[in-house]
Structures are given as C-alpha cells and as structure tokens.
Design brief:
The complex is a heterodimer of chains A (about 110) and B (about 120). Chain A has about 110 residues and is an all-beta fold. Helix content of chain A is about 0%, strand content about 45%. Chain A has no helices and nine strands. Classes of the chains: A mainly beta (about 110), B mainly beta (about 120). The interface of A and B includes residues 34, 46, 98, 99 and 103 of A.
Chain lengths: ~110, ~120
C-alpha cells in the first residue's frame, strides 16, 4: 500500500480558500488519488479523485503534481460544514482494491 | 431515501454475547464492505464482498463472520464479543466498473457504535 503523509491538523476561516496537502511519493503509476472526508459522528464521504490531470467537482478541486508524488485538495470557499477529517488515499485498479485510511488532516473552520 | 443504511445505530452488550449488525444498500452496487473505526479514530477495512463472494478478508478474528444473502445486503455477525471489539462499524458499497474491479468511490453508511461492557 502506498504511504501518505498529511498534516495532522489545519485551521482556516469561513469563506476563505483552504489548501489541504498530501504527499504520496510511493504511489504506483496506475493508482488514482482519492480524497474522502469524515464529518463528526458520520461515515466517510467521497470528495474527489484523479489520476494525472487536475479535477474539479461541486465539492472541491484536486491539484495533482506533475510527478504525482503529491496532491492538494482545494476547498474554494470553506464553510463551517466543511469542518472534518480529510483523507487522501491512493487507490489501485489492480491488486486488492481497498481504501487504506491514514490519520488524515483535521480541518477546523473558524466563523 | 437512504443509500446505505445500517441497523442498529447503537449496540450495547455484555462480553461473551453474540450480536449482528445489518447493512443494506439501495444503490444497485455489486461490492460491499465492512470497516472498523476504533477509539483512536483509525478506520480500517475488515471485509469486502463482490456479488455475494468474499474478496477481501483483512486477518479479522474468525469470531467475525460476514454474511451476504444477496448483493444488496452484507451483515456482520460477531461471536463471543470482547472488550476490544468496542468501536464504530461502518458498512460501505461501491459499483463495479466496466474496465474491471470495484470503483474507489465508496458510499458509507452512518455507522453502528458497538459498546462491549
């Protein structure tokens, strides 16, 4: 399983952009990068995923480094509801095909 | 309509008892999972089933037995409960992809908090 490194915690203010970094230097060439988040007392929730190109959806944007050894999840205008633990997870289309959750980044949003 | 549902939401029981947690998904997915989140908040996969067949078993004690009566249901039965089994258990599902293999986009249920006294 590819190892990931994320900051334990981050803090931001409401309505400001948030950039959540993740290092995954041992990622396989065919692994997708998935991001999930877990709001308090809820199950994890899929946010976004990508392979090489940057990706956008209604929740967030994903910027992937050219060498694929790191990625950044971007929340364009954080709201209080975005306070959660964010996980970046390499996902292989070959092999065991399982999500391996690390410790994630706990994001706090200040009003 | 709830996509992935689990029952019960809370389960408090004595050591040594046998209990079951039920999971149902109405998304038409082929693959279902059980995860355990311990008190330190580490979330770890336990089992994965694809179309009623076991495909991942992460060295979970054999006191834990998943059962999939059909592809919309994956239940978790736990025998001889121990204190260390106290955790939040999450069920999840994902679609199978045309290129083969399960999708990495998984849909999680709300969780079942199990407390063993």
């Amino acid at each position: 399983d590819a190892k990931t490194t994320q900051p334990n915690s981050m803090e931001s203010n409401e309505e400001e952009p948030v950039h959540l970094p993740c290092n995954h230097s041992t990622i396989s060439g065919t692994d997708y990068i998935h991001w999930y988040r877990q709001l308090p007392s809820q199950g994890p929730e899929y946010v976004i995923h990508g392979l090489t190109s940057n990706v956008n959806n209604r929740m967030a944007s994903l910027a992937i480094a050219e060498d694929r050894k790191s990625s950044t999840l971007i929340l364009h205008r954080a709201t209080l509801r975005d306070a959660a633990v964010y996980y970046c997870i390499p996902w292989g289309i070959q092999g065991a095909q399982k999500l391996v959750f690390g410790q994630g980044t706990r994001l706090t949003i200040n009003p | 309509d709830t996509a992935v549902s689990q029952t019960p939401k809370y389960l408090v029981t004595q050591m040594g008892n046998d209990k079951s947690i039920k999971c149902e998904q109405n998304l038409g997915h082929d693959t279902m999972y059980w995860y355990k989140q311990d008190s330190k908040k580490f979330l770890k996969i336990m089992f994965s089933y694809n179309n009623k067949e076991l495909i991942i078993n992460e060295t979970v004690p054999n006191r834990f037995s998943p059962k999939s009566p059909d592809k919309a249901h994956l239940n978790l039965h736990i025998n001889s409960l121990e204190l260390g089994d106290s955790a939040v258990y999450f069920c999840a599902s994902s679609p199978y992809q045309s290129r083969g293999g399960a999708s990495g986009e998984q849909f999680f249920g709300p969780g079942t908090r199990l407390t063993v006294l």
